[in-house]
Amino acid sequence: MSQFRLAFPLAFTIAIVPFAVDTYLPSFPVMADYFSVSVHDIGLTVAIYVFALAFGQLIGGPLADKFGRQQIMFIGLGVFILSSAIISQLQSYNQLLIFRALQAFGGGWVAVCIPALARDKTEGIETAKLFSLIGLIMVAAPAIAPAIGGALLTWKDWNSIFVFLAAYAVLAAVVLKLTLFNRKHDHSQQEHDAEISRTQELAFFSRYLAVIRVRPALRFIGIQILTFSIMLLFITHASFIYQQHFAVSTSGFSLLFAANIVAMWCVMMLNRFLLNRFNPFSILRVALFIQALAVLFNFVLSQTALSLWTFAPCLILTVGITGACSPNSQACYMQYFKINGGTAAALMGAMQFGFSGLISGLSNLMPESITGVILAQLVCSLLAVLLVLWPARPAVEK
Question: What is the span of the domain harbouring residue 275?
């Protein structure tokens, strides 16, 4: 398959994760009134979703290695569809928390198979290019999700948002069946799954032990956690930085926030071009240094009289450069795991969401200040640089 024909169904499917998080954000006040709770209580459903998503990946990864990607993806989609439909009919807040966790658990089974499938079908630099292309396609999801949610809320009510999520997951299942898992390509994937199963028949926890024993790969999990935390710290505190500290208008905030997505998209495009000449590890190393310099410059600026027009470009660069950090660190990591790719992807995904969510949550316990946010980003960035400089030969060099 061409890279686009492979990337499109993978990106279309994994987009259920940002859609499930971002589409219902505009409905928080309405849902709070409906369930007779506070907006803060509705916000708890986001945290529950992130942690249940991580847990779902931990369970789904080894199962995808044992039973095959297709079965686990379709079961995960089924759980996601059913729980989304049930949420649209709920009247109890406690039930909302339960089925929101179940929705994320199914989403985790789906999400964990995406990098595993990418590793199954590509090698080396081609894997990095595929991850970049998947990112290029699915970056539209978080950009348009709130607008879709707002439109559905205006047209009908909050329930329709979860009906939309169920319908989207059904469509994703159809796309997968018509592309990756049709008769022509399904046979080769089944042969690959059977080969992996025959090569290494391991128990559930033994698969994780086999992954953890590959010590050189583990630093890329750390890099992924830290770079994702830098972006999540921005998302968590973006409203405070722009709307409170710099007194930017609502429309101005939307433009500045969108600039980060545009920057990330441009960096992903550049990354695919650079991969024609350089290996993923080399690009990752340079990208992390650029990110560290951008964060350091903003930290210095935060000690002086801040100007939006000097601060914002560095912040946009800090977030945008993750478009080169994430796909290359994923590619370097997954290259170690021709066997147990699903388990390896599960470990990275769960650690990424779990620890990044924890770092972001801890940042909310500190007095909110622009210096504190940038300092937290700087610590994450410097640790990522230390990890990429750690003397270990990457599995993918060419």
Answer: 214-389
